Inverse folding.
């Protein structure tokens, strides 16, 4: 009789745990589906050139699903659209959001490099340089060097730009994101050493 009570108690606990696990899995799946649907609505709005609607969808997605990778991707897409429409300040805002809030370290790095490029386009090369600490770049170091070269070239520092481009080329791998022929072209089109700062 005593064993029977223990068996029933164990069965109840086991069933309760199973029900809880199933509920958790269902709620996780539903949350992912909701995030995916919101992201798709965002992309549809962007495809239809409804920038304001896409902006609102992304704001809502971040608010309802903080830390969602879909929200990061939505902000990156909005940044791309903003750059294409020459809204560089808006692009910078979206990229900074991903850089500061994403839970994915690689995505943070991607946003950082894109934000640095946007700063250069905005005529703020010093802000770009401040973002790109090569010592903490890891696998992104060659790309950091390339963008630092672009920033220094924008400042008129051809010597510094050449040094950065050379470092980018020296560390470039197929996975680094560095287009070697393009970097070589940028390096070769810098002013001659005598004219460099």
């Amino acid at each position: 009789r005593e064993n029977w009570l223990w068996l029933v108690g164990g069965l109840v606990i086991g069933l309760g745990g199973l029900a809880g696990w199933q509920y958790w899995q269902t709620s996780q799946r539903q949350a992912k589906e909701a995030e995916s649907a919101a992201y798709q609505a965002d992309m549809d709005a962007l495809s239809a050139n409804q920038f304001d609607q896409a902006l609102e969808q992304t704001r809502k997605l971040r608010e309802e699903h903080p830390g969602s990778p879909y929200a990061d991707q939505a902000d990156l897409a909005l940044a791309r659209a903003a750059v294409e429409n020459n809204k560089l300040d808006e692009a910078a805002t979206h990229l900074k959001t991903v850089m500061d809030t994403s839970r994915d370290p690689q995505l943070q790095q991607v946003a950082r490099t894109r934000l640095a490029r946007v700063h250069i386009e905005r005529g703020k090369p010093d802000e770009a340089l401040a973002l790109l600490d090569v010592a903490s770049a890891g696998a992104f170091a060659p790309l950091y060097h390339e963008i630092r070269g672009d920033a220094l070239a924008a400042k008129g520092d051809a010597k510094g730009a050449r040094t950065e481009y050379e470092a980018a080329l020296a560390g470039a791998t197929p996975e680094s994101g560095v287009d070697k022929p393009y970097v070589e072209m940028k390096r070769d089109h810098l002013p001659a050493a005598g004219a460099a700062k």
